[in-house]
Amino acid sequence: MNHDNEEAFSSSGDLGLRLAALGPRGATTPEDFALRVLRRAGISRSRYDTYVRLETAAGGLFVAFGPEAVTGAELEARHGPGRERLTPQWFEESHRRRVGRSAIPTDRAPAGLRPALRTGRARHLAIDLSGLPVDERAVLEAVRSIPPGQLRPVSWIAREAGLPPGPDARAVVRSLARNPATVLVPCHRATHDDGTPCDAAYAREAGDALRGAEGIDMVTVRQWARGGDTLLGSDTTHIYCHPTCAHARRITPAHRVPFRTARDAHRAGYRACKSCRPVAA
Amino acid sequence: MDDEAKQLTELLATDLDGGFTELVRIHAQVVHIFLLRVTGSAAEADDLGQDTFLRAYTALRGYSGDRRRALLPRAWLLTIAANVWRNHVRTSVRRPVSAMRVEDAEDLWSDGRPGPEERAATAEDRGRLVEALSQLPEIYRVPVVLRHVMGLSYGEMAQVQGCPVGTAKAQVSRGLRHLRRLLEPQEAVRKDVAM
Fold first, then answer.
1. Smallest CA–CA distance from B16 into chain A, residue
2. Is the CB of residue B144 less than 8 Å from the CB of residue B176?
3. What is the pLDDT of residues B169-178, one digit of tens each?
4. What is the pTM of this model?
5. Residue B152 in domain
6. C-alpha neighbours within 13 Å on the C-beta side of residue A136
7. Å from A131 to nearest chain B CA?
8. Residue B112 falls inside a structural domain
9. Main-chain phi, psi angles of B153, to 5 degrees
10. Do A15 and B179 touch (CB under 8 A)?
11. Bridging pattern class, strands A70-75 and A271-272
12. Which residues in A lie closer than 8 A to residue B32 (C-beta atoms)?
């Protein structure tokens, strides 16, 4: 075949190159062509997923969905520096490997997907996590309950997910790394227990962009992490929170009392916030 | 690529609908671009492309598992597409070249990251080439598009055309010669302007 190609180029020369420019790399097919083919052939909608590419603060996001729920999402910008961007073809192939159905491009996002991405409130978006082991699904469901603009440490996620107590941080981070619906299951809101973001499934920059768009001030978060203070109390209410909790953010600077651990806070006579639940109630 | 083709035919053999969705996902673009280049019109490429896949699906339903397993999906689909186009040309009243054609060429130019080939060719040049292709006699148009636009090997081409490899080579060579003649008057003008 190589020999064939050389021959073609030498005999056709410039004209061959000009014709090649009209080929697959130089032309675009209407976005919904394949989808219309399947509809016309009468293939049942449950046999394939469709997908769109949407813009997020961290760049393009491919989102695949079936008739009932989102079935996968992946950022175009990939893990680590120097990695090539995810192409539609790669996304289609990895989706196929993961769920066993073809992902067919469409230009119509399902109802609720765009607003969920715009506002970061994706908690009530239907996402199909049924293919995952029970523990992984519990971890991702716990992550889904973190409100936009807030961060939660791995130990909190493990507890909310109902994992047995113990050194489960690595199991949680593993589940985060395998998140099949990046951004929509907001793993960018998960941190290690020292307060540094996990960003297990994508580059740190992508995570920072997503957090920035939700109004999380990463400079402050990093300062906190460096200082070793992971909880924030108010000396007027004697309640302590995760520092990014909506209630903690309302404490005026003069009344902020930082704590390293929940035990320190309890010793000082503080109780845990019931919204962000820094310890099990 | 070979692995991918094998996986696809295996899937077609065992699960027709699941295999067909993969067939469409992988090859829709190839079929569409082939038809776009032989018809010169995006609208016609779209219609004929739909017909091509519908025929493919109907045919697959009648095939045995072994026959589906033995398919060469890309060559097979392009064979159907070429037949669909030939039938279309035969049955429809030949329409004059519409203004739509050159527009198509420019629309398609705008997208994608330009490789070296694309950069060398201007949108105007592409328009001229698309125009010349649509004037090429039908017997040469399919071979030239298959070989030089789609980049098929002569072996694969011969399968699509159902002819010996030597015949395929000869058709491409004659087609190119014919295409050069069609382009010549314009190219001469272009050289004059350049000087």
1. A43
2. yes
3. 999 999 999 9
4. 0.83
5. no
6. 14
7. 18
8. no
9. -75, 160
10. yes
11. unpaired
12. 29-30, 33
